User: Which sequence fits this backbone?
């Protein structure tokens, strides 16, 4: 947990590019670290390797009905219906994200702040507004507060162990039905995890109210958010299915995006040459104007910085596929029930694919013939993260707005390491910065 990538690298040095880890309460996980076998895994039939079954750990966090938990024809159909909402990224999204960035950082000018907290708050607000379409400030703020509390309380070590080892959906249902009501009777402080149970129940009520509003406004052409597009889609999703999709979007979307923003600021501030080149490009392309959709394709170096952050610091270090039918892969016999895991972190540091893989070098995505199939921060194959276009869009708009409008000065940074934080990775320490107005 303290050094997940270093641990995997030590395993690779000792055992080679294929090795098995056995985690308590989980099936054996066979890690693959070479591109050839990983491509085979991503191309494999869902009758042989099942991604949904391997994601059972998501049941407590997001629910058992999201696209990440489906397999076979059900997964294919749901994914087809969700493709358009995540790729229809227009000027409204860019304007909202740029606006939220200014609102988050402008009041902090001259102050020292923890960038991690600011990046989490910002990415979550962008999702609430652009993905859920919540315009009411009071509801947006309540959703924001509940999501942050839900994530913090869910990652309590005892709670995290519970939902990793027990059936997550049943545990969650028990907490809503049996434990949450105790908080209304004044017993909340006496019952363990009663506060988390209350948060889950309140969060559910708010999400269902948001879904109901989207259904009432189905024919409102002004609504172009992900939720409204899903509600209008050809596949008639039930409220429970929409709720699980929204939770998956909010949890995974904000955590992974904010972590990548953290690393981008760390790497840029630590490398004046990289920062200077990024700023020069922004001054030429954006100048004093707002960041627009039309500007994004011309921000090639900024995009390369983000790709390099995703390569060296992937928010998700590995993905899984459960073996449904005994098979053989890269000469390895895989019995039914084990999980094969393409190691994102190890592939991204493979010296056979990347020159000087430990070095942070955005130029490799501009000057070298990089095989994009080797960059799998969002997974691969038919289970590539649906939120990839939305995430990259948000990262570019937010980082471009931040760098054109503000200067970021690091304050007392220790050496940054990648550590495990629940389902995702993060920075080992708070990223404290001083923000000043650039223009």
Assistant:
């Amino acid at each position: 947990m303290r050094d997940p990538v270093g641990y995997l690298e030590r395993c690779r040095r000792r055992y080679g590019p294929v090795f098995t880890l056995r985690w308590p309460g989980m099936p054996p996980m066979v890690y693959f670290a070479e591109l050839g076998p990983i491509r085979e895994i991503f191309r494999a039939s869902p009758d042989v390797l099942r991604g949904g079954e391997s994601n059972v750990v998501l049941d407590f966090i997001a629910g058992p009905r999201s696209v990440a938990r489906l397999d076979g024809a059900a997964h294919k159909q749901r994914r087809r219906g969700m493709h358009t909402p995540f790729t229809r990224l227009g000027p409204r999204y860019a304007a909202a994200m740029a606006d939220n960035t200014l609102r988050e950082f402008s009041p902090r000018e001259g102050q020292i702040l923890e960038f991690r907290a600011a990046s989490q708050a910002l990415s979550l607000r962008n999702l609430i507004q652009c993905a859920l379409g919540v315009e009411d400030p009071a509801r947006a703020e309540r959703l924001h507060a509940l999501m942050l509390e839900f994530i913090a309380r869910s990652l309590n070590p005892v709670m995290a162990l519970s939902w990793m080892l027990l059936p997550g959906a049943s545990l969650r249902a028990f907490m809503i039905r049996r434990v949450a009501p105790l908080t209304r009777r004044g017993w909340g402080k006496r019952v363990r995890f009663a506060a988390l149970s209350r948060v889950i129940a309140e969060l559910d009520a708010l999400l269902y109210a948001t879904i109901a509003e989207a259904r009432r406004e189905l024919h409102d052409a002004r609504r172009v958010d992900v939720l409204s597009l899903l509600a209008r889609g050809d596949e008639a999703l039930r409220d429970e299915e929409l709720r699980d999709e929204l939770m998956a979007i909010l949890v995974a979307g904000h955590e992974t995006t904010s972590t990548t923003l953290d690393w981008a600021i760390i790497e840029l501030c630590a490398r004046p040459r990289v920062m200077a080149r990024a700023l020069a490009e922004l001054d030429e392309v954006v100048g004093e104007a707002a960041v627009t959709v039309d500007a994004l394709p011309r921000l090639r170096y900024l995009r390369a910085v983000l790709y390099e952050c995703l390569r060296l610091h992937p928010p998700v270090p590995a993905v899984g596929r459960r073996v449904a039918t005994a098979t053989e892969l890269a000469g390895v016999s895989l019995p039914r029930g084990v999980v094969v895991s393409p190691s994102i972190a190890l592939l991204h540091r493979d010296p056979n694919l990347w020159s000087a893989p430990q070095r942070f070098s955005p130029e490799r995505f501009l000057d070298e013939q990089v095989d994009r199939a080797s960059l799998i921060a969002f997974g691969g194959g038919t289970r590539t993260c649906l939120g990839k276009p939305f995430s990259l869009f948000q990262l570019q708009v937010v980082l471009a707005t931040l760098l054109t409008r503000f200067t970021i000065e690091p304050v007392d940074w220790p050496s940054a390491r990648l550590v495990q934080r629940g389902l995702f990775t993060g920075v080992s320490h708070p990223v404290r910065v001083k923000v000043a107005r650039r223009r």
The mean pLDDT is 91. The chain has one domain: 4-133+223-437.
